[in-house]
Amino acid sequence: MTEPAEPYVTKSDYAYQTMREKILSGEFAPGAVLNQAMLAKTIGISTTPLREALRRLKSEGFVELGAHKDAKVSELSGEEARDLLELRRSLDPLAVGLAAERRTRDDIRNIREAMRGVEPLRSNPGYDDLIAHRRFHVALYSASHNELLIQTLDSLWDKADRYRRVGLQVERSQAERDQKHAEHLGLVDAIVAGDSDTAAALMLRHIDTSLGAKAASRLGMRPTATPREI
């Protein structure tokens, strides 16, 4: 039994967060059928807040709902992996380039603090590992102080986490993991130094060799357009 619903604002919020964690952690695999009655009992809530949570997850593309009470975790697709990669190749370099120009002292402190908690992901990462990885990238693009860009990247990150597990199906070598760590450090240094060109170039390289790029390749898709040089 998971923790009780009381710490959350509503039982629907609790169900949403619990289900989302199980999907992103891989506990509920793509295509898995979700028995709503059993889930409600396991989580410790009634089916009404569970259905509310499932509708919210459907709007984010995590689950599919049938005409009656059927639900299943959304399948992964090569097309979506490619689309995510193409968007991130344009938007992430833009965000860190702006961050290098606009970062504040608070931004720098948040970036450095997030960097201390992130390590290159290994195969079968836990939910906490994914959260630490995300926290670092959020700290980077939040320093852009472009709210529309931040909201867009937040949405893309929600979808991209499931594809990172596909990219991790082939274990990365220690050299690859060391390279990712070096890129993270380089991004921090470039943003702190106010070097927008270096930050953008590093981020583009980071995306091109990312787990999302590996996932798109494994699913038979590659980006069809190259973003303009930033």
UniProtKB/TrEMBL annotation:
Matches recorded under Pfam families: FCD, GntR
Assigned keywords, A-Z: DNA-binding, Transcription, Transcription regulation
GO molecular function: DNA binding; DNA-binding transcription factor activity
Record has Transcription regulation as a keyword: yes
Taxonomy, superkingdom: Bacteria
Gene3D superfamilies listed in its UniProt record: GntR ligand-binding domain-like, Winged helix-like DNA-binding domain superfamily/Winged helix DNA-binding domain
Domain spans labelled HTH gntR-type: 9-76
PROSITE patterns named in the record: HTH_GNTR
Name of the protein in question: GntR family transcriptional regulator
